[in-house]
Amino acid sequence: MEDIVSLCKRRGFIFPGSEVYGGLAGTWDYGPLGLLLKRNLENGFYKTFVDGREDMYAVDASIIMNPKVWEASGHVATFADPLIEDTVNHKRHRLDHLLEDAGIDVKGLTLAKMQALVKEKGLKSPDGNPLGEARMFNMMFSTHVGPVTDDSSVAYLRPETAQGIFTNYKNIVDTIYPDLPFGIAQVGKAFRNEISPRDFVFRSREFNQMEIEYFCDPKDWEILFEAWVADYHAWLESLGLPREKTHDLEVPDEDRAHYSKRTIDIEFDYPVGRKELMGIAYRTDFDLMNIQKASGRNMEYIDKHSKAKLVPHVIEPSIGTERLIMAVLCSAYAEEGEGEDKRVVLKLPEELAPYKFCVSPLLKNKPELVEKAREVFNLLKQKYGFVTWDDNGNIGKRYRRQDEIGTPKCVVVDFETLEDGTVTVRDRDTMEQVRVEVANL
Ligand code: ATP
Fold first, then answer.
1. Residues 332-367: tens digit of each pLDDT
2. Distance CA 195, CA 352 (A)
3. CA gap 239, 210 in Å, rounded
4. Residues with beta carbon inside 6 Å of ligand 1?
5. Whole-angstrom Cα distance, residue 80 to residue 82?
6. From atom 2 of ligand 1, which residue's Cα is the shortest distance away?
7. Distance between CA atoms of 212 and 235, rounded to whole angstroms?
8. How many angstroms separate the CA atoms of 253 and 260, rounded?
9. Most exposed residue of 92, 165, 241, 326, measured as fewest CB within 10 angstroms of its CB?
10. What is the model's pTM?
């Protein structure tokens, strides 16, 4: 994990947020290469689950929503994690994580039971101090909307993108008239005041989600649920995550969110352990019924043919971009060779690689080579966009640099190019080199 974190920083993928001021825990900034990777991933999500299908629509809702949204959804009352404080230095910790770190299975345990275990096992804080009383801590960030700062102006930064979908369900039905089943997707920021952010971007306080709410007739939910699990596995595999490293966890009754009748967490074997990459939940009609009750607006869907009315049920696949980026990087990262030949290579699928090509002249002090290489660069740049230029150091060093950031092909212009119009194309994974005519690149 340390190697990947260091590569991300060194090569401009991901930096600690506000680092120049000492950082801000749980925040991360994307550098140029990380942003390209993120865009490629999110574009891939749209391509696979929205553009490539007839039953899917996307929205982009506001991050700050009417606080009634979070009252109706249950977030104000229950979106909380167990917190416990070090009684000496007053650092706050996630109680369930402390117990897990001590080898205790916390699944299904109440706050009182966890507190009792702290006493029973004589558990101390990570700094070796006694722990205080446990309590639940709400993870929503609050702010005030408008010039008055009192209870009436409180609003929250959304802790999930899902509610921006539910609140637009009726708008989509009334403007697009989709047939059931249909889905609405949203990609965007979510904010959670995590008690202890950790494991690189895995647990951040500000992150991106790619969520889908798939509205269906309740009689069809089981078959559709299975289809979503299969579709997501296929997508994850296409992003380079080995199937043997992803695992379906059937979340037991006592651990499922109160609205869910079935949840599968897809976990991934990260270097820091097997952890939740994403979740697929059958949320029933919980959200639409809550909105109907709280807003007084009718959430029924009227079947175009039979005119039958129903409040649709929902299947929700939800994945965080950062957790996916981390899984993609861990799957792609490899160290190969020995001594002089040692290389670090990111074997990213071509569509995820920040740059598709690197173009360089064999020697940077030969104007005729540089001029020809520029021509090739412009040609590829026009065609593919994601092309980089590198004329620093010797060719071997350039290859190593491009391997490290996952560039699939390096194109080198040499003296032969001037004679016969062919260039060397070197493959990232096999390191094989072939001669290709510029016109055929
Ligand atoms: P966890 O149990 O790990 O806190 P969760 O079950 O609360 O996660 P969900 O509410 O199901 O997570 O959120 C959907 C997805 O959003 C998660 O599967 C994950 O990919 C992503 N996600 C949730 N919290 C974070 C976070 N703090 N940082 C980065 N991604 C997150």
1. 999 999 888 899 999 999 999 999 999 999 999 999
2. 32
3. 15
4. 160, 192, 194, 203-204, 207, 209, 276-279, 318-320, 322-323
5. 7
6. 276
7. 14
8. 9
9. 92
10. 0.94
